User: Which sequence fits this backbone?
């Protein structure tokens, strides 16, 4: 029976209802019971350590004990546990050692003044911790959001003598400053307390605060502290970000020019090229840093693996990319294993090149660039 014949026969009939007793796929997914219990940090890190610097105790998590030292700096309100999944992935893919620091006022770090979250103080803390570790290996700073800004400030102090590279995730001066006006509304929309860690994990995954359930289960506990009032188990936020407003602009003001002035291999990873401000757009066209765009979690771990090990993951926006081998791969870089085996269609590649050329003002001759003609050496998400 043809679709037209079927349409004529069913015309005027009431809509077909669901078959009694049958559970649809959407209902099955909606009703599926998920596990929101806490996952221990030791499934992702080898050790947790406390570094004493003067009267301050800085808490960090470590995985690996040789190779390039990768120092992870988390965003505002988060903790070192936010890097758990990425750390485990990198150590299994790249010959390196990773540490994830709880910044001042966050996680289990305790200082003489947890309220001082100025850019200079946080950057000094990062330098103090790295100096206390006394490593002989090259150091790579990787920071997300506020942590990305602090990574730039720490690199600009020239105190990290072994610093070999800088990777900044999802932070640009212009867009960061513009979004500060909405921060109070975002913070006010969050629940102020939770009856259990499981309830906190459930809220953050369903609200989109943390999209990856596994990451939420291991990292959410680092953002909360117990506050047992009236003999009831209550968990509240470890840090009240609204009280740090005086430092927000200091984190991001002048960030673009400071980032461009650092004479090191630099990578900026963003959700899209439209997030670039004027200084970064000009700097990127001048080849002052590598731009990796359309890199969204959790897939950025694949891009970081390639960038750290010098594998050919390159954006079409980079006319003359430089490959910096910060660390060696563990075994061969398997394109199929890293989800890169599937080729793009010709029309998809053409639209992407046209988008990049129009945004960056490239001429038609840019098509002759061998990097932009490479079929699928970069993954866009």
Assistant:
């Amino acid at each position: 029976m043809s679709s037209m014949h079927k349409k004529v026969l069913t015309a005027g009939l009431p809509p077909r209802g669901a078959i009694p007793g049958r559970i649809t796929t959407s209902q099955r997914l909606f009703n599926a019971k998920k596990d929101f219990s806490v996952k221990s940090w030791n499934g992702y890190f080898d050790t947790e350590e406390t570094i004493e610097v003067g009267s301050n105790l800085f808490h960090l998590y470590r995985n690996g004990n040789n190779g390039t030292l990768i120092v992870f700096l988390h965003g505002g309100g988060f903790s070192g546990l936010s890097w758990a999944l990425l750390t485990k992935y990198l150590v299994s893919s790249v010959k390196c050692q990773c540490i994830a620091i709880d910044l001042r006022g966050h996680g289990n770090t305790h200082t003489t003044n947890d309220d001082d979250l100025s850019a200079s103080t946080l950057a000094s803390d990062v330098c103090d911790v790295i100096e206390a570790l006394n490593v002989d290996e090259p150091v790579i700073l990787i920071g997300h959001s506020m942590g990305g800004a602090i990574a730039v400030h720490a690199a600009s102090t020239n105190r990290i003598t072994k610093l070999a590279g800088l990777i900044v995730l999802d932070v640009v001066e212009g867009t960061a400053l513009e979004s500060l006006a909405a921060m109070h509304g975002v913070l006010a929309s969050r629940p102020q307390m939770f009856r259990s860690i499981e309830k906190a994990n459930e809220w953050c995954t369903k609200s989109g605060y943390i999209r990856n359930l596994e990451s939420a289960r291991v990292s959410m506990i680092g953002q909360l502290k117990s506050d047992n009032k009236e003999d009831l188990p209550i968990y509240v936020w470890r840090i009240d970000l609204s009280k740090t407003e005086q430092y927000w602009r200091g984190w991001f003001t002048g960030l673009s020019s400071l980032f461009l002035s650092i004479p090191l291999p630099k990578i900026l990873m963003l959700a899209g090229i439209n997030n670039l401000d004027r200084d970064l757009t000009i700097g990127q066209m001048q080849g002052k840093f590598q731009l990796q765009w359309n890199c969204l979690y959790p897939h950025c771990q694949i891009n970081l693996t390639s960038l750290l090990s010098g594998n050919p993951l390159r954006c079409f926006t980079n006319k003359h990319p430089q490959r910096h081998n910060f660390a060696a791969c563990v075994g061969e870089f398997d394109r199929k294993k890293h989800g890169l085996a599937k080729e793009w269609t010709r029309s998809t590649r053409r639209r992407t090149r046209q988008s990049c050329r129009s945004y960056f003002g490239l001429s038609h001759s840019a098509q002759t660039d061998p990097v932009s003609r490479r079929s699928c050496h970069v993954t866009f998400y």
